[in-house]
Amino acid sequence: MNIAPGKTEASSVPFDKARVDRLMEEAGIDVLFATSKHNTQYLLGGYKFIFFAAMDAIGHSRYLPIVLYEKGGPEHAAYIGNKMEGGEHQNHPFWTPTLHAACWGTLDAANLAVEHLRKIGKDAARIGIEPGFLPSDAYALIRKALPDAKLVDATDMLERMRAIKTEAELEQLRIASELITDSMLATIAWAREGTSKTDIIERLRREETNRGAHFEYCLLTLGSSHNRAASSQAWKKGEVMSIDSGGNYHGYIGDLCRMGVLGEPDAELQDLLAEVEAVQQAAFSKVKAGTLGGDMIAHAESVLKASKVAAYTDFFAHGMGLITHEAPFLMTNHPVAYEGTYAAKPLEKNMVLSVETTMLHPTRGFIKLEDTVAVTDAGYVMFGDRGRGWNRGGIS
């Protein structure tokens, strides 16, 4: 399917065109050549092809969606997708004036992208690519076919593009967080003495799926163990459970951690979770538009350093949205390998943060809270703000 370019109204572009154009100008990019599923989804206004939601491989190659967007020229935008996506367009038309729903692999997709760039006179332009999401065979084809073009790494520009969420994105993230929280609390209440980690994880998967979320993972501990992998280990009376799950709602991530206990929490457990909560609250107290990201980190770390559990407890915060670690990047290599480039920048309204404090107690086990907050002018809004204390197991 090849739909000829036509006039595109500014209102039909599903993102802040002026902001994206400005970010492209600052990055020295004339045309975006987006190839990751998260960035193509963003640029298409939330669309992601369901057939390749779980796996990209097909035949001898893989699915390679491409969105081409010219700075200041939405009328020249194109989407290059799989042949089956013609049916998607018939039901819910893509906003891009040009659509090539014709590909089965990387090279045919790259060839169509090159043809389109030539057609719109951008074969010698500064083209913003995603090196981590552009297969080597497609890159080699583009480099050979467009010898006069300058290929620019657009990763940072695209991360900045997604850092400030729209109201619609915030709602997706809120729903995702609510669904994951509800699922974790239901799973804790369901599990009882003798229930294995493998069965608990499977129950959580069903709870999330039945609520309309897409289950991605569950990291689970029982008792004094710090091992979060699935196993036959069974829950015992008096033991704690940490349940940390990531799932998504229409691509937007819900990523939280809640605590359970089989029985009544004793005084020590109450005290330990209170120490974790104190660090979380210290971080929240500095979340506000205009506050330096690094100041929030430093304040939480100072409260943790003064805590009696500091020797075996860690604090971490990161941005999240369509992926679990995205801008704002607040900490360097802690633990994910990236630079904390946003620590010296002010937090902005509608950024979304995951804030987590993790205790690896030597005898009581893995005790953690992870929360999702959206930055506002006055402070923050928390998503999934329930079950942050000790939740009793075996009560449903």
UniProtKB/TrEMBL annotation:
Domain (Creatinase N-terminal): residue spans on this chain: 19-164
Peptidase M24 domain ranges (all copies): 171-377
Protein name according to UniProt: Xaa-Pro peptidase family protein
Natural source organism: Mesorhizobium australafricanum
